[in-house]
Amino acid sequence: MVEISQAGIRLDTADDTPLVVSFDGHYVWSLAPARDGRPVDGGVLVEWPEVLQRFLDGVTQVRLADVEGETVLHDDEVSLGSGTGRILVADAEGNRLCVDKSGHLTRAFAATAEEVRAEIVEGTARALRELQEYAGVSAYLGYGTLLGAVREGAMIAHDTDVDLCYLSERSSPAEVILESYRVERAMRARGWSVVRMSGGDIKLLLRLSDGRDCQIDVFAAFHVDGVFYQLGTASGPLPRAAILPLSTVALHGVEMAAPADPEAMLELHYGPGWRVPDPSFQPADPPEGVRRLDGWMRGFRDTVADWSELHQGDGLKLGRGGPSAFWTWVAGQLEPGTKVADLGCGSGRDAIRFATAGHPTDAYDFSYAAIAAVRWRTRRARRAGKSGATAYRFNLNELRHALTLGAQLSRDPHHLYARDLLGALSATGRANLWTLARMALRGSGHALFLEYAASGPDLPAPEPAGLVERLDPAAIRAEVERAGGVVEVCETAPGTDSLEHDDPLLCRMRVRFPRRAGHDTATPSGERP
After folding, report:
1. Among the three residues 51, 73, 106, which one is the final residue of a domain in this structure?
2. β-strand 361-365 against 340-343: which pairing, if any?
């Protein structure tokens, strides 16, 4: 028995069989009950993905079936919420959306017009050709794109982007990163819009006639001590001979480059059952491979899409009143003209205020939408004859980003300003923040200013829900002190968060990193006594 409700999909039993959910005949989501569900009385409940919940108000024909459509567990009209209209999971232009393997809403190839799919195939062939001819790398179809080509001769209906890879001749991760940047420059020179995702992973943006950009991921692959590593993530015992010399495979009738042994590559990615379609598949990469790729080349960006959605929407509407209490508190401690680095700047409201108050300001965030918002605000400020901030993409989950910025700021001292940042970071991200601050501030007399939602009994979850958490000020103080910092000020009180919501308990801190014993002490500067 299957029960569809506002809470989700309840089944009497749960196994690993992937299931496909359709609304009014349109694919919206896939799931594996044993993996995605939680036990409830009489069965298992698989909750609706958070990104779908805002659409679940109305009536729709819900079909739950296996991937082949041969076993149908439910196919009936369901009323959800209080609405009476048809439920439509679509964007503002009416284009059908589905939940992809990363939990984001996007447009699947199945919901793409035939002529637009032809543009994607043509763009994929062009990208492969130019990676080989102009970037000089051995590029081939990878991941889901290779899987669709080998198994079906076509793009997988439930897939949403294109995956390309190339095998590097380098075995040093640092040299692989340098090569990836060279590849990026070569593709930009060919006219591609390029987004860098990590030290060995870029996206080529292919503009389509329906107005969207198709993302073509380009992942570096390499061998270290005989082990194969490929951004994305994949690692394991795959010999070089399984990749080179390249073979070809047909994708929608177009011959494209593929590994020498496509089946071996697909088994590494998807296991021995790769021939059986499974739109709910989630990779289970070896932990040691994930750890090494993270350390060598990247940090997690699990929430970047959610933050970007926020900055593209309500983020630009906020901050039109006066400055925040935290901004006022910090600004009152700065000497005129001292520089500020706004870490986790969001849409840049505070960064612009520092700049217009006479403090040269750099703004840093891992969301491209946030960076775009800062630049938009800067253009407005400059049209009004005021100063703006310089915006940079920056990810505190990447140690290499923290080390690079720490080294830069050690030569060009800035105060560090972080409002509502700490609660959005993982433990690794916080550790990288302390490393950056120690490098940038040690002995300079400049300070790190923090404000975050503090923990305590019976407190509500902070906003935005699911993206930030409350932190114990005593635990944060201990982390700072272990990193060599000194908490000079620690205050807790009710206040207003960066989304202009009232919060019952915020914590403010001023932190310095004094020079270590045995070193000359720098004369404090940049702050009023």
Report:
1. 106
2. parallel
At 242-253, the pLDDT tens digits run: 999 999 999 999
Provide the H-helix boundaries in 278-398: 287-297, 304-312, 325-331, 349-356, 368-383
Question: Where among 282, 297, 312 does a domain terminate?
Answer: 297
Which pLDDT score is estimated for 324?
86
CA distance 500 to 151: 51
| Length of the chain as a residue count | 529
pLDDT of residue 526: 39
pLDDT tens for 204-244 read 999 988 878 889 999 999 999 999 999 988 899 999 999 99
Q: Are 49 and 99 in contact (CB under 8 A)?
A: yes
Closest CA to 417 of 320, 479, 351, 372: 351
Tokens representing 111 are 């919901």
What's the whole-model pTM score?
0.68
Dist CA 94 CA 99 (whole Å): 16
Q: Do 199 and 247 fall into the same domain? A: yes
Q: From CA 61, how far away is CA 26, in angstroms rounded?
A: 10
**Which H or E run includes 410?**
helix 399-411
Name 433's Cβ contacts closer than 8 Å, sequence gap at least 6: 343, 396, 402, 418, 421, 422, 425
Show Cβ contacts of residue 225 under 8 Å, excluding neighbours closer than 6 positions: none
pLDDT at 487 over 90: yes
Higher pLDDT, 1 or 461: 461
Q: 451 exposed, middle or buried (CB, 10 Å; 0-12, 13-18, 19+)?
A: buried
Residue ranges of the alpha helices (H) in 166-286?
A: 173-189, 262-270
168-178 pLDDT tens trace: 999 999 999 99
Find the helix or strand (DSSP H, E) in which 400 lies.
helix 399-411
Instruction: Supply the pLDDT for residue 320.
Output: 55
Q: Which residue has the tokens 């807790």?
A: 492
Instruction: Quote the pLDDT of residue 245.
Output: 97
Residue with tokens 């959610």: 306
419 assigned to some structural domain: yes
Position 58: which residue type? G
- Write phi, then psi, for 260 (nearest 5 degrees): -60, -35
Tokens of 145: 């794109």
CATH code of the domain containing 187: 3.30.460.10
Q: Which residue has the higher pLDDT, 344 or 323?
A: 344
131 and 79 in a common domain: no
Between CA 350 and CA 361 the distance in angstroms is 10
Instruction: Of 95, 116, 118, 117, give the one whose Cα is nearest residue 107.
Output: 95
Q: Are the C-beta atoms of residues 502 and 496 closer than 8 Å to each other?
A: yes
Q: Which among 202, 200, 407 is positioned nearest to 296, based on CA atoms? A: 200
CA dist 155 and 146 (Å) reads: 9
| Whether residue 457 has a cis bond before it, omega within 30° of 0 | no
**What pLDDT digit, counting tens, does each position of 106-124 carry?**
877 777 788 988 999 999 9
* Residue 13 or 216, more confident: 216
> How far is Cα 199 from Cα 298, in angstroms, rounded to an integer?
6
